[in-house]
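Quick one: co-fold with protoporphyrin IX containing FE.
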Amino acid sequence: MYGMVNQAIEAMVTEKFGAEKWELVKARAGVDEPTFVAMKQYPDSVTYALAGAVAEVLELPLPGVLRAFGVYWIEYARRGPWGKIMMAAGHGTYELLAALDQMHARIAVSFPELRPPSFRVEPRDGGVLLEYRSERPGLSPFVIGLVEGIGTLYDERVEVEQVTSREAGAPFDSFLVRAAPAKGG
Ligand code: HEM
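Sure, here it is.
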């Protein structure tokens, strides 16, 4: 994955737990480089090793770390150079979820080697069913955090429930997402 993802993990750990913890995480993950380059491609194994090392160093469950990183990523991306592209893609949770492939495609103009996931939405039970397809394993908790983070962009209270799971043998992961205005409910 592009270095910007690893940079965001570094920013989250440093902001929330301090620079010393980040050094421990890098050492545990076997990462020698002092910094990551946003526009450079790194093997996915580096990102997985970092996530695993965060969980070990902070003694937290990995799914919880991935979910917290999803929430963090949205705020981090909003502040970053591509924040405007994300914000222009939708004006509410459901709208942004429906526009994710288009949004990643616009980002791929600057990141030609991007291998983004693919999302599909359809109305379901007073919310939407979000289908998530990826060539990478194990990232469902990350998606759950991302969707929760998207809700905070629009001051919406968002509930996410996993419906199908690749880990359990389904062909793809899917989630039931319900969003409502945060106030008055
Ligand atoms: C400005 C906003 C965003 C930028 C710049 C961005 C960029 C990226 C980048 C660079 C990757 C790594 C893939 C690679 O390097 O090949 C990635 C992966 C991913 N992105 Fe985004 N993204 C943005 C917003 C979002 C949002 C709003 C979602 C919401 C669901 C999302 C979902 C994902 C997921 C789940 C992955 C993990 C890769 C996978 O599942 O295979 N991204 N994105």
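If it helps, Residues 1-2, 4-5, 77, 82-83, 85-86, 100, 104, 107, 111, 114-117, 134-136, 139, 142-143, 146, 150 surround protoporphyrin IX containing FE (CB under 6 Å).
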